[in-house]
Write a structure and sequence with these properties.
This protein is of the alpha/beta class and 404 residues long. The protein has 2 domains: 24-61; 148-403, Rossmann fold, CATH 3.40.50. The protein has helices at 2-49, 51-60, 74-85, 128-138, 152-157, 159-179, 215-234, 256-268, 289-300, 318-328, 374-379, 388-403, and strands spanning 64-69, 88-94, 118-122, 142-145, 187-193, 237-243, 246-247, 275-277, 283-284, 287-288, 308-310, 316-317, 333-336, 343-346, 352-356. The strands form 4 sheets. It has a 7-stranded parallel beta sheet with strand order 3-2-1-4-5-6-11, sandwiched between helices. A 4-stranded mixed beta sheet has the order 8-15-14-13. Strands 7-10 form a two-stranded parallel ribbon. Helix 7 (215-234) links the parallel strand 5 and strand 6 (237-243). Helix 8 runs parallel beside helix 10 (318-328). The longest helix is centred in the N-terminal third of the chain and has 48 residues, at 2-49. Bound molecules: NADP nicotinamide-adenine-dinucleotide phosphate (NAP) and ligand G4F. NADP nicotinamide-adenine-dinucleotide phosphate (NAP) binds next to helix 3 and strand 5.
Length: 404
């Protein structure tokens, strides 16, 4: 009897153990399949209704939505920072690239910003289907078209591509607004440029005759007239910001200002190479990118759309820029020779620091750009805050800091 009882209790013990394990497993399976089902429904819901945007918008109470093309560039990155401070939701169009092109906006790829306030989309100004889809999906209040092949010298090597992006890109966006019947809903900013003036009277304002002198300038002039035409023909709130050269620590390294400030920083850190430049006598009206960004937004806040020149009103030569930059590291540059044989010399050591390389000359050059921005100062209540000297010094300082 005792033996039978022992067998039965042993059996009962193993049965209960097995039952426990069985029920625990069943529970795990049930719980995990239920939660995976919930996840799947949630994901489907998000995909179906673009819920990511809806949820965030609902919680965030944005003032407006801005779509920025060229967000990875100098101006796009500053504009995104500026508009985020104004509580905008930012939609940024960035190109697919085999290497990182988000260096200037890395700070937007953070937990509380990415897909909360800043929403990146892959896109290209040469692809109208993708532009239409992004606008349709994101419903922007304002579009800032800053994307461009923006290098004047390069535009002589890639004229067709430059026209495709800089001229037709703007047209594609304007047509997208029309196609989606958003003429009364979306305000459009076009990044126009002082390059459209070319060699003409000085200073240049909104009434100055255009005389573009590069494929870049010709393309930007097409975009300029497209904006004017769509404004008149379809009543779209579209404006051209005719901005003169503006620079800063985020300026592309192949534009002359940043090329100089990087070379000066290199020299200071011990890498004592000669700096090769092109036309030393070209004059530009250099302002600060951070200063100029504000005007883009201000233009879109006006009651009626109109075009504005944005400039400091002071022009300096490439030589003067270089002199000011070397001055920051205690070097006084003196110039000697003429034309392609002109050199910049350290007045103390008599060493040559700057030489001319004809490779940097352009087939057609714009000799002087100097803007008359009285209209912007009057109507936008704007004025430049950063002087030429402070701009150059700030750029050299930042480039030196980057090396240490
Ligand atoms: P930038 O630094 O050269 O930036 C250009 C931006 O456009 C980059 O984000 C670039 O993307 C993007 N881009 C180039 N090709 C594109 C394409 N096919 N599709 C979509 N995006 C494309 O220029 P920026 O100095 O910021 O200037 C901004 C705008 O103002 C430009 O339109 C420029 O022409 C105009 N502008 C500039 C100045 C100035 O002094 N800075 C003065 C007057 C007008 P990646 O990063 O992938 O290259
Ligand atoms: O710095 P840059 O290449 O700027 P550029 O051609 O004035 O164009 C910039 O400003 C325009 C606004 O006016 C924008 F629309 C455009 O997108 C871009 O941002 O050249 C400035 C001047 C030119 O006269 C050039 O010939 O500097 C002269 N330069 C002399 N040596 C040089 C160099 N330019 C470059 N890039 N590199 C040189 O070594």
């Amino acid at each position: 009897m005792k033996f039978i009882l022992q067998i039965m209790s042993g059996f009962l013990y193993h049965f209960l153990q097995f039952a426990c394990i069985f029920f625990v497993h069943i529970n795990i399976i049930l719980v995990s399949s239920a939660s995976s089902l919930v996840c799947r429904i949630y994901r489907l819901f998000i995909q179906q209704f673009n819920l990511k945007t809806l949820i965030d918008s609902k919680h965030m109470k944005f003032k407006k939505t801005a779509l920025i093309t060229g967000i990875t560039g100098q101006d796009g990155s500053h504009l995104a920072d500026f508009l985020l401070k104004k509580n905008y939701k930012i939609i940024g169009i960035k190109r697919r690239s085999s290497s990182f092109n988000t260096e200037r906006i890395n700070h937007l790829y953070k937990k509380d910003i990415l897909n909360v306030k800043y929403f990146p989309y892959y896109g290209d100004l040469t692809d109208s289907t993708n532009l239409v889809r992004i606008i349709q999906e994101t419903k922007p209040d304002e579009i800032y078209n800053l994307g461009a092949q923006s290098h004047v010298k390069t535009s002589f090597e890639t004229p067709e591509y430059t026209a495709n992006v800089d001229a037709l890109g703007a047209l594609r966006l304007l047509e997208a607004i029309r196609l989606l019947k958003k003429e009364n809903k979306i305000k459009f900013y076009q990044a126009s440029t002082s390059e459209i003036f070319g060699n003409t009277e000085i200073p240049q304002n909104e009434k100055t005759k255009f005389n573009p002198a590069s494929p870049y300038a010709v393309s930007k002039l097409f975009a300029y007239w497209s904006v004017v035409n769509y404004r008149n023909a379809y009543n779209i709130f579209a404006v051209n910001g005719i901005l003169f050269n503006h620079e800063g620590e985020r300026r592309g390294a192949t534009f002359v200002t940043r090329k100089i400030t990087r070379a000066v920083a290199d020299y200071y850190s011990g890498n004592k190479k000669i700096l090769y430049l092109g036309n030393l006598n070209a004059k530009r009206d250099w302002g600060s990118a951070k200063d100029y960004i504000k005007t883009m937004w201000l233009m879109l806040q006006k009651k009626t759309p109109t075009d504005y020149v944005v400039a400091t009103g002071v022009s300096k030569t490439v030589k003067e820029f270089a002199q000011e930059a070397y001055k920051y590291i205690g070097i006084k540059i003196i110039w000697s020779g003429k034309g392609v044989n002109e050199v910049g010399i350290d007045s103390k050591t008599k060493k040559i620091l700057i030489k001319v390389d004809q490779d940097y000359f352009r087939p057609t050059e714009v000799n002087e750009l100097r803007g008359d921005s009285r209209k912007a100062r009057r109507e936008l209540k704007w004025k430049p805050e950063v002087s030429f000297k402070d701009l150059v010094q700030e750029m050299v300082k930042k480039d030196i800091e980057r090396l240490y």
